[in-house]
Design a protein that fits this description.
2 domains, 4-stranded antiparallel sheet, 21 strands
Length: 376
């Protein structure tokens, strides 16, 4: 290697280091979301290994710190990926080093320009709220207050939401409430009248014990409510069904362990029709969502991966998924250049997991008795 080549390489490394250094600091800007303006702050610093790290704060959404998964730079360009919320920021530093012009992508790309903050111009970041008080792990709660009413047929969507001590569902059928309570696929619920799958209800309930319940406690309360208000009774039978087994793909899993409170509730939600965000959730939580809301058969977790994870899954759904009622705005055609892969390819490419079709005996709930809900 001649002296000129060595000099050029050294200059390139030095230039990269200098650009990386100029990105450190506090950056702020306003994101024009579809329904409101969101003020965001990126705090960029260096690690002990002299690499860049970043933390995102969304001022209008509470300001909790959201650490970035990776921060990479190339010359005056920077890319910040945040797996925890399925977001990516890509921008270019201005010549004076005091502004970054770029794009924030979280489902859809939106322009986001950042300015370097000074002590005089820096926005105040709200204090994070205290963590919710958890219900004792050995508690056996019931829903103390519960209202059940028919859903508004003109309102789209479906939801299961826990806010503080209030649990609500929107546009949920009795079959969906059963699948939630007992962690089964609709095909594992047999018998019963046709209205179980056609009549939709909104439910609002609060437990009789203080504190935020765990998922297991939520399911237990729902099972008790179904027995009390719908007079639900059933027996178990074993039946061989076609299922998907979730297994490790070649090369192993690519998902990250969650840094959230391991005792906190999981969050699994769709951003548009093609982006599933999974936060602080086990793979059992993930397979439960896939079998109850997305796929046409039960899903069995055979990965043997324990703990909770954060990941984002992007795919192009087909007519066999979501019961044929694919949510969200129209998506690009499956063969379009910007279309995400189908679900089975996306699982392997993005998560390092795999759905394998197989047949196995599974538990089936055979309905013996059920009634429309009693008065509130």
């Amino acid at each position: 290697m001649n002296s000129f080549t060595r000099w050029a390489l050294a200059a390139g490394v030095l230039q990269g280091a200098l650009f990386a250094q100029t990105f450190t600091g506090s950056w702020q800007g306003a994101l024009q979301a579809p329904n409101r303006e969101l003020r965001v702050v990126f705090k960029i610093s260096t690690t002990e290994a002299d690499k860049l790290k970043a933390v995102l704060y969304s001022i209008n959404q509470g300001g909790q710190p959201i650490p970035a998964s990776t921060v990479t730079t190339q010359g005056s360009s920077i890319k910040i990926s945040i797996v925890g919320i399925g977001g990516t920021y890509e921008g270019k530093l201005s010549a004076d080093g005091n502004a970054i012009s770029g794009t924030w992508t979280q489902g859809q790309p939106l322009p986001l320009s950042l300015k370097r903050a000074t002590p005089e111009t820096a926005w105040t970041i709200p204090e994070p709220p205290p963590p919710p008080k958890l219900m004792p792990a050995n508690a056996n709660p019931v829903f103390e207050v519960a209202t059940i009413k028919p859903s508004d047929p003109s309102r789209p969507g479906k939801a299961f939401v826990m806010r503080g001590r209030e649990f609500t569902t929107l546009n949920t059928t009795l079959t969906e409430l059963i699948t939630f309570a007992y962690e089964v696929h609709p095909k594992q619920v047999a018998g019963g009248p046709a209205w179980m799958e056609s009549q939709k209800y909104d439910l609002t309930a609060k437990p009789d014990i203080e504190g935020q319940p765990s998922v297991a406690q939520l399911r237990s309360m729902m099972a008790k409510l179904l027995a009390e208000r719908f007079a639900l009774a059933f027996h178990h039978e074993k039946k061989e069904l076609s299922v998907y087994a979730l297994v490790l793909a070649k090369g192993g899993a690519k998902i990250e362990k969650s840094q959230s409170d391991p005792n906190g509730l999981p969050a699994l939600f769709f951003a548009g029709r093609m982006v599933l965000n999974v936060r602080n959730a086990s793979l059992q939580d993930f397979t439960n969502l896939m079998q109850t809301s997305v796929l046409d058969r039960p899903v069995v977790d055979q990965t043997r991966l324990s703990g909770k994870f954060d990941f984002t899954l992007k795919w192009t759904p087909d007519e066999t998924q979501f019961g044929g009622q694919i949510p969200g705005p129209p998506a690009p055609a499956a063969d379009a250049a910007d279309a995400p892969p189908n679900l089975f390819d996306a699982i392997q490419q993005q998560l390092g997991l795999k759905f394998e079709p197989t047949k196995t005996p599974v538990d089936v709930l055979v309905i013996d008795k059920v009634e429309k809900p009693s008065e509130n």
